[in-house]
Fold this sequence. Notes:
The protein is globular and about 45 Å long. α1 packs antiparallel against α9, α3 packs antiparallel against α7 and α6 runs antiparallel to α12. The longest helix is centred in the first third of the chain and has 28 residues. By secondary structure, it is an all-alpha fold. The chain is built from 13 helices and no strands. The protein has one domain.
Amino acid sequence: MSRAIRLSAAPILFLLLWSAGFPVARLGLDHAEPLTLLALRYVLVLVLLVPVALVMRPPLPGSWAEAGHVAVVGFLIQVVYFGLCYTAFKAGVSAGTVAIVVCLQPILVALAAPWVVGEAVGGRAWLGLVLGLAGAAMVILARSRVAVEDPGDLALVFVALLGMTGAALWEKRFGVGQHPVMSNLIQYAVGAAFALPLSLATETMRIAWNWEFLGVMAYLVLGNSLLALSLLLAMIRSGEVARVSALFYLVPPLAALFAWPMLGEVMPPAGWVGMALAALGVALASRRRGRERHIRE
């Protein structure tokens, strides 16, 4: 498979895997409390990865600093982003509110990218970011309840937003292309080290085991935790962080589309319009200028 085909396929595969993870996780929360679900997810990832690492013997990070950078990204995504989003759901924050707040991530990345990683964001990219935000918001508002939330609970979602934004920028600036197995081992060890004690301290850790829950965990571990996240970090390292972050505008529309057959949540007509607008915005924001594209190829 040529490099061009791989680069084209990576965003599509990432979006499908990442977006489907939201309705799948929603199913999982019917069987386990949020932090318990996360802790189990992270521990199962490590159970799978440790034997693989023993057989493959991937190269270790070149220094403690390199390992530290991988750990920071893992902490920001697995603990701050996922942990606080799930905690906000537990506190009663509506799914619509969480989705709208998280949709601000590409805008924050674009604002910070020139200063943090030296990447300029052009006028066409800004137009795409605004259109993408508008389209994603249309889908969310068409499907979800956006209620007046408790300020303290809402603050959890904004900190989660900062966690994912910081992870994207940190990976772009300090990521050194660790072997995926080693990178995932470090990041999910960090996630488990925080999620497991917190779940033990704050939740009952009761799980309703059945075939549906086993299917949920299989998807969250293999499709969401291992493959989707590895694709995201690889795209950030090889491309412009603002362009890659723009892909997140398609997550709410695609998650809504997956929720239709999985959860019986029908997409309203306005949602389809919003999905088209978000797709147009992502296309504009992620399209490279001709000269830049020629140079990279």
